[in-house]
Amino acid sequence: MTARAEVLARAAALRERFEREGALTVETPILQPAELLLDLYGEDIRARAYVTSDALRGEQMLRPDFTVPVVQMHMAQGAEPARYTYAGEVFRRQETDADRANEYIQVGYEVFDRTDTAAADAEVFALFEEVLRGLNLRAATGDIGILMAAVAGLDTTDARKAALMRHIWRPRRFRALLDRFAGRTPIPPTRSALLSAANPFADVGPEIGVRTRDEIELRIAALREDAVSPPLGGAQLAALETLARVRGPAPEALDQIETLSGDLPSIRPALDRTRARLAALDVRGIDTATLEFEASYGRTSMEYYDGFVFGFYAPGRDDLPAVATGGRYDALTRRLGNGSEIPAVGGVLRPGLMLQLEART
Q: Which residues form the Aminoacyl-transfer RNA synthetases class-II family profile domain (predicted)?
């Protein structure tokens, strides 16, 4: 076990490195309002966060990460462009893996700059690659924006696209929705009976639960509309499913995605942005010819990212989490900006893991 003093010293050194890039050191409260985090991530976050309550402030969460409070701070008072760095504890519940830490030190670097998003993406990735050099880590990259653009351009109802978009970060649920919208899974008998009933509320007994009758009626109407909508299929469905499986060296992966853009033309702007990012990474000295790109990368753990995503991993150590992760979160600044927004990208490192890997080399 790496001594806490060593971890704090490494965290301070990383923060100082980011300060030399022009980053301002900031701090955020350890206790964060649960209402905001639940609004952003849904109830799923309860399984990963420590929740407590306060008589005056209501539900609170031990800080699960820094990005949300840093974005809040910047959108409330930050000048632009801006760069921030921070270091401190984050807290994550571990219900299935007792060997994973539930409290650890995290160091971050965030860039708020609307000048050149490709250059900002490359700046963050290259800086992380530099500070992690020597650990022989595997770098993985992706772009959630390509898949989001594909869903947005589907020839189907707005309700179906909204449902798919909402579950992009839950691949199993996303897959189940695709199967349902494509007509590959039968409608459950109970739903068929509900939709065919002239009066769904007849003989149901007293109304209980948190949903009102109006909300239930709207849901039934939406289900009826979906039931008569044409199934999603054809070349678009095949291309979307192929897109989600694309993986390989970045140039080859993007060539595959380019081919799919014939059936999914809505992805072309996102694809152009990805190519611009690769060019910016080349300028920074990154070997993009061998850089791994996966169209579905980040879909299970990066819920507020909506563009470029990346991570650094120890090869052959599937028992360890990522040593560093990051990506672009423009949409988050819109959610927290009270009418304003700014392109933003950043990432976090785990100095404790860095020291652990160094000790074994």
A: 12-361
